[in-house]
Write a structure and sequence with these properties.
Structural class of chain B: alpha+beta
Structural class of chain A: mainly alpha
Number of strands of chain B: 19
Shape of chain A: globular
Helix content of chain A: over 70%
Oligomer: heterodimer
Number of strands of chain A: 3
Order of helices and strands of chain A: HHHHHEEEHHHHHHHHHH
Helix content of chain B: 25-40%
Number of helices of chain B: 19
Radius of gyration of chain B: 34 Å
Number of helices of chain A: 15
Strand content of chain B: 15-25%
Mean pLDDT of chain A: 87
């Protein structure tokens, strides 16, 4: 009881409330996308419950041990990524999961958790003298998981990992000018990189520009999602009234395209409400992060907020057709155990970091 | 300590960047959901609302007394849902299905044929007319075969199978030629969702009446193409039933008489042209064709020596032989060449002036003193050799073509053949011996049995009515009658034909048993010519070169009501092979126990 009181008094209540809202929306949309109660609904219910337990525990326990072994955690996460190559199960042509019976663990979620801890620790321990060498180390430890995940293939998650590395480098004071040079270099290198993309990845990027071209193959998802969103109109078709969703024209409704389910049923007004909630949530978490006292806390917390935000933008962007379809879930709402738990862990840890101002005092 | 000021400034910058993306998302959504909502709403409706055909049931085909000759039988087909599926996926479904259902190569071939060529549908049949056993096997495995489903369907069924194969024909799956026909005639609406079309016979000729007009069902479908609920319906216009003039019992009788023979019988009412019997043997089972005949059966039918697929009534071409003689006589009388006072003395052969070629009479030693009536009765060749030359080929041609030889009879059947009436106006160097041959129905002349009956009807009714198969009592008969021949001339010819079945006539063998007073004319048509010094000996000649036996007849002689033509291929003498069949059928027509035959 005391713990709950402690939790209630000392954490940001807006964050917890928002997560509760997301969870309810998630259950509602999974119900809608599967036309009623389905195994997905109940599994999601269990994972939400589990998520809240973890969220609560991570807020109050002492996490020094994890931080102390940040390198080890990182190596473990990399090992899991590598193990996915021979052991992973393949869904829709990509190997991203290891089957643990009750959970298909998406191994890239582990690195999403561990990489920011490692980066925060690197900068924390060298904060007196941050040299370009440190930035280079940061970039290198980012590039390893980025490459492995890109090969899975999972373009979306690998880009999120890469951008976290880059963002941390930016936050810690790397010269923007150099980054601009790097960017120009990248633009020149991009034809070479293009050749290294898989055919379907190329198709997806090309489809972004013209999805109507081949509606029965690669562009089908993009078109059907846009139809679902567009046909929702101002006020939506009403809960459970979306034809694109209930008649199965929309693919992957409970996972990557759940935003389209929402948009079809609740329309533009509903979307403004949901986006406001997300924006408010990100803003709160952002404010919380930059107000933290130690560099370690700030870097780690902000990294998590960034991962969350980038994932959100990529997901919605791909559903509404401004980004290619890369298979990134809508945070807290899409069905999927590992991603959901990762988000709970993010914000549990953020709460913890907020409470324990000096985790690395010595 | 890091530069906190720089850190925060850059963090805020990134946050603003995130905010910018939120704004971008909102703008994009504003366009999608507010500005272009109409377009996407229509697309969503196009996805989920499908117009499905509600196939009209095909009209029945009945005989003149309402006996069903072609009907629709409830059967079950298996169809594969192909909507939104790639070709590869469909291949997988088919190969998976083959593990649980017996799908022949033929079925598979037809499936992919209709899938790639047919009218676009949500699903295509993979197996037609499954048995109860197959159905229970399918239902037991349906959870695995989720893309395959049972479809209730009415299949065309011909209960009398071989008995009416050539007349009624059959329906078969729509192929590329049919699609061309459908699009050229702007009939796409009518064939919306159809799988079959009439290919042969009555099924083909009355296709537009039989097929009806499909209705439409607007249904909400899911992405698998399954209809979930109906929004709007438009009922189909069912196909019309077609009543034929055919009499079922007479047709069955005719086929019985033709059994194990090659030949055709056509019998009609003289005054109306209504066809009572339309039989061609050997025959085939039209039910084999309804869902596409398999290759082995097709080869069997198509390569058989006795040509079971040939409709001998309108497509069988034969020299008319002596059955042409009454019409040659007509030409002579109409052109005032001879009268009944004109006699010749027949020595048994005929010789052209300035020529050594001898034309034999069928009777050695000849028929002696004969006039035109005798000549018909005894089928005196010599009389007609001489008569033909007297009339002249031009007049013969005019008379024969005026009663329908060399042209379509306009019977309501598709693909009728015209035969061949040698045309002296077109042919250069017409030789006199050709005239001589034409006068006894040899030479290049070719007729169909339908033309024989048609000519007989025109002669006896002195009108120009066409044989007809559709029982349609609304046609005012008088309008079609146009007297063209001098009645006295007709009387003379009829006298001759009456005497054929009397003692001394070529079919005099029935004299005394001829209850219903059948009159007619026998014919024996040479399939190949003998040299002048050879004798025809049936036993020495291979069967396919033996003479065709023909007979045309009508009854009762004093007041002609029905006409008949019988052709037996390689049957030998008309009097022994063809005429008895006619006698038998005519008797049946007038017998009380085949009461069907009268109105």
């Amino acid at each position: 009881m005391q713990l709950i009181k402690y939790f209630y008094k000392n954490t940001d209540r807006n964050i917890t409330r928002s997560i509760i809202c997301f969870s309810l929306i998630s259950l509602m949309l999974i119900f809608a996308s599967e036309n009623g109660f389905s195994p997905f609904f109940f599994k999601q219910l269990i994972f939400i419950f589990l998520g809240f337990v973890i969220y609560f525990l991570l807020t109050i326990i002492n996490i020094r041990l994890i931080i102390k072994h940040a390198y080890f955690c990182y190596v473990v996460a990399i090992v899991f990524l590598l193990l996915t190559i021979p052991l992973g199960i393949s869904i829709n042509g990509s190997k991203r999961w290891i089957d643990f019976g009750f959970l298909h663990l998406q191994t890239s979620e582990l690195i999403k958790l561990c990489l920011p801890i490692l980066l925060a620790k690197i900068y924390e321990s060298h904060k007196k003298n941050i040299t370009n060498k440190i930035h280079l180390i940061t970039f290198s430890v980012t590039l390893i998981p980025f490459t492995i995940i890109l090969k899975q293939p999972d373009l979306g998650t690998s880009l999120i990992i890469l951008s976290i590395g880059l963002l941390v480098i930016i936050f810690t004071g790397y010269k923007i000018k150099n980054l601009i040079y790097a960017f120009i270099g990248f633009v020149f290198l991009s034809p070479f990189l293009w050749n290294h993309l898989k055919e379907y990845q190329k198709n997806r990027i090309l489809n972004l520009f013209n999805p109507d071209e081949n509606s029965l193959t690669a562009g089908y998802h993009a078109i059907q999602a846009k139809i679902a969103v567009g046909s929702g109109g101002l006020t939506g078709k009403g809960f459970l009234q979306g034809t694109q969703t209930s008649l199965d024209f929309l693919p992957e409704t409970h996972t990557d395209f759940i935003f389209a389910v929402y948009a079809e049923q609740f329309g533009f007004i509903g979307i403004l409400l949901l986006l406001s909630l997300y924006y408010f949530f990100i803003f709160k978490a952002f404010k919380l992060s930059i107000a933290m006292h130690s560099d370690f806390n700030r870097i780690l917390s902000l990294s998590y907020v960034m991962i969350f935000s980038i994932g959100l933008i990529i997901n919605i962007g791909m559903v509404i057709g401004i980004f290619p379809i890369v298979g990134v879930p809508l945070p807290f709402i899409s069905y999927g155990g590992s991603a959901l738990l990762t988000n709970f862990i993010f914000f549990g840890l953020i709460n913890n970091l907020n409470l324990n101002k000096t985790l690395i005092a010595d | 300590m890091l530069n906190k000021y720089l850190f925060n400034r850059r963090a805020y910058f990134i946050f603003i960047l995130i905010s910018f993306f939120f704004l971008l998302i909102c703008i994009r959504l504003f366009f999608l959901q507010i500005i272009y909502q109409d377009i996407y709403e229509e697309k969503a409706n196009n996805n989920s609302i499908k117009v499905l055909p509600d196939i009209a049931s095909r009209g029945l085909i009945l005989d003149r007394n309402g006996e069903i000759l072609a009907t629709n039988k409830l059967s079950f087909n298996l169809e594969i849902n192909t909507h939104n599926k790639s070709y590869k996926q469909i291949l997988e479904i088919v190969s998976n299905a083959k593990r649980y259902i017996n799908i022949s190569e033929e079925d598979e071939k037809n499936f992919f044929k209709s899938y790639s060529q047919g009218i676009k549908r949500l699903s295509y049949p993979i197996k037609f007319n499954i048995s109860e056993q197959e159905m229970s096997e399918f239902l037991a495995n349906q959870f695995i075969l989720s893309d395959i489903f049972l479809v209730e369907k009415f299949n065309r069924f011909y209960p009398f199978a071989e008995q009416f194969a050539h007349l009624i024909g059959y329906i078969n799956r729509i192929n590329n030629d049919d699609i061309t026909f459908i699009t050229q005639n702007a009939l796409s609406q009518k064939y919306f969702g159809s799988t079959h079309i009439g290919k042969k016979g009555i099924e083909n000729f009355y296709e537009l009446q039989l097929s009806g007009q499909p209705g439409q069902k607007e249904v909400m479908v899911n992405s698998f193409g399954f209809a979930l609920r109906t929004i709007k319906t438009k009922a189909p216009l069912q196909g019309e039933n077609i009543s034929l003039t055919i009499s079922l019992p007479l047709q069955l009788k005719a086929n019985e008489l033709l059994q194990n023979k090659k030949g055709a019988v056509i019998m009609s009412e003289i005054q109306t042209g209504e066809v009572l019997v339309y039989a061609s043997q050997p025959s085939f089972n039209p039910n084999l064709f309804v869902n596409g005949i398999d290759q082995s059966n097709w080869n069997l039918l198509n390569n058989a020596d006795d040509k079971p697929m040939l409709d001998r009534v309108i497509n069988g071409l034969y020299p008319p032989g002596s059955t042409i003689k009454p019409f040659i006589a007509l030409s002579a009388l109409e052109n005032h060449i001879v009268d009944t006072e004109y006699y010749i003395n027949d020595p048994g052969f005929f010789q052209l002036k300035n020529s050594k070629k001898i034309f034999k009479d069928w009777k050695k030693g000849g028929h002696g003193h004969v006039n035109i009536i005798d000549a018909i009765a005894v089928s005196c060749d010599t009389f007609f050799y001489d008569l033909g030359l007297k009339i002249g080929i031009e007049n013969i041609f005019k008379t024969l073509s005026s009663i329908g030889f060399g042209s379509n009879t306009n019977i309501d059947m598709p693909h009728e053949k015209k035969g061949n009436l040698p045309n002296p106006f077109l042919k250069k160097n017409w030789k006199l011996y050709e005239t001589v041959n034409t006068s006894i129905g040899q030479g290049d002349s070719l007729i169909t049995p339908a033309q024989l009956v048609n000519a007989l009807n025109q002669l006896l009714s002195n009108g120009n009515i066409s044989p007809q198969l559709h029982l349609n009592k609304n046609i005012p008969l008088s309008q079609n009658i146009k007297k063209q021949f001098v009645p006295e001339n007709l009387q003379i010819i009829m006298q001759g034909m009456e005497r054929v079945t009397k003692a001394g006539g070529t079919f005099g063998s029935i004299n005394g048993r001829n209850k219903y007073n059948l009159a007619g004319k026998t014919g024996t048509a040479q399939v190949f010519s003998l040299k002048s010094n050879e004798e025809y000996n049936e036993n020495l000649i291979p069967e396919n070169k033996r003479d065709h036996a023909l007979f045309i007849g009508y009854a009762p002689a004093e007041n002609p009501k029905i006409s008949i033509a019988v052709v037996i291929e390689n049957g030998g003498h008309g009097s022994s092979a063809a005429a008895p069949i006619a006698k038998n059928l005519v008797d049946s027509y007038f017998e009380g126990d085949l009461n069907y035959a009268t109105h």
